[in-house]
Amino acid sequence: RRLAGRLLRRGRFFFLVLFSLVVIARAEVSPFSVRVEQITSTDADRFKKTQEKKLRIFVSNNSNADANLTLKYYFFGHGAKDREIDTLDKGQMAGSVKANATEIIETPAAKATFNEEHYETKKDKSGGNRGRGGGMKLGKKIEASGKKLTGYGVQVLNGGTVVAEYFSEPSLKAEVAGGR
Q: pTM above 0.90?
């Protein structure tokens, strides 16, 4: 009985210690949240493609006080030949959100143009339908060039502290932290 009583007391003690650590380790919850919609258009002309993206940012303030916030936005992309991620465009905007309200902020458009790898084609001088090419001969190879838009990110700051953020791919956040 004595042994069982000691174990029971120790068990309560460890439970209390564990519970207090959980309470101490609790993260501070931000009263701000962010949701992002992208507005995308692509203009294609045979092998050349131009992408345009804008972000519609919904910032919600769930506190009882108005807030003046700073929004930082980033557009990421990669080269047509490689997969190295770059920050293609970035900016920041000021916004105020009333207490218990949501504001919608739209970013300027980011554009990127790329050319796909292809071959120039030339008409065969004989003009006949020889072979599968239908009288066409392959010409010079044109290498891929330009940039493609591949992702985006938004950070909401209150007094220089990030209070909400969203990245289309979690790995893109490292591009911002890395200071590229």
A: no
